[in-house]
C-alpha cells in the first residue's frame, strides 16, 4: 500500500493543495453534472418540470449526503490506520466496510422505493407536480447503489492521498450525462433525465473499479472480515452520515415552507440551490480533505502538523469564498435566467443571495473546523453541532420569520450560518485543548 505523497513528513501547504485542488475540481465537475440536468430540463421542458426537479432535490440531496457522510466515516478510521502504519488493520477496515457498503446501499434503495409517496406528501409537493416528481425519483433510486459505491471508493482513495482520480471519474460522468440528457429527455421527458443519470452513474462506477484494479493499492480477502471493526465502523459512519444529511433535511423542510409561496418561489429556490453549489462544494472539499489529513496526523501522533493544516485551510478557504461569493451575488440575476427564462424567478434568486451573501464565508470556516473535528475522531460531536444550527436554529427561525415573506426565510438561513461558525470554532478548540493540542 502506498500514498501519492507524504502527509506526515511532507510540506504541509503543498500536501494540502495537492489534495484540495483535485477534490475541488471533482466537486465542480459534480456541480456541472447537476447543472447539466437542470439546464436541459429547464430549457427543454419548462418551469413546471424544473419545479418538479426542485421538489425531488431534497430527497436526492439526502441520499447523496448519506453516501458521502457514511463513507467519510470510513475515511476517518482508514486515515488514522494508514497514518499509524497499521497495515493489517487497514486491510480489515477496507474489506469489512466494503461488505457493509453493499448491504447498506441495497437496503436504502429498497426502503426509499417504498417511501417515495409519503416523503413527497411530507414535502407538500403541489398536486400538478406530484406524478412527474414521483416517477423521476423511482427511476433515480435504481442507480443509488452505484452512487454509494462510487462515494465509498472515492473515500478510500482519499485516505491513501489520491484525490486526482475522483476528478477524472466525475469528468467522464459529466460528459456522459450531458450527452445522454437531451436524447432521453426528447424521448421520455423528465423521466429520461433520470434514466440518463442512472446510466452515467453506472458507467462511472465501472470506470473507477477498473482504475482500482490497475492501481492495486489494496485487495479484498474474506479472511479480513472483522465483527469488531464492523462495530467501530458503524460508530464512526452513522454519526458522519447523519451529520452530512442534516443540511439535506433542513433543505427538505425549507422546500416545504417555500412551496407555500407558489410554483415560482419553488422554482427560484431550486435555482438558488444549484448556484449555491459553487459556494458549498469548495467548503465540502476542504472538510473532506482535512478529515483525511488530520486523521493521518492524529494516527501518527503529529497534532502540531494537524494545526498547521487547519490554519492554512481557514486562510485560503476563506479567501476563495470571498471571491466566489462576490461573483455569485453580483451575477445572480443573469445566472438564474440560464436555468429558467423567467424574470420573476430571477428576482427571487437575486433577493436570496443578497440576504444570505456573507453566510457563505462563515460556511467555509465552519467546514474547516468540522473537518478537523472529524479527523480527530469525533464525528458525533460534529453531528451534534450541525443539529444545533440546522435543526434547532434554522428550521424554527424560518417557520417564525416566514410570516415576513421569503426574505424572512432567507434571513433565517443567514442567522444559522453565523451560529454555525461560532459553534464549530468553539467545538474544535475545546476538543483540541482537551487533548493538550496547540489548537
UniProtKB/TrEMBL annotation:
Keyword NADP: no
Coiled coil, from the record: none
Subcellular location: Cell membrane
One term of GO molecular function: xenobiotic transmembrane transporter activity
Membrane topology: Multi-pass membrane protein
Chief location bin: membrane
Transmembrane segments annotated in the record for this chain: 15-36, 48-71, 92-115, 135-157, 164-180, 192-212, 253-272, 278-301, 313-332, 344-362, 409-432
Name of the protein described by the UniProt record: MATE family efflux transporter
Native source organism of the sequence: Evtepia gabavorous
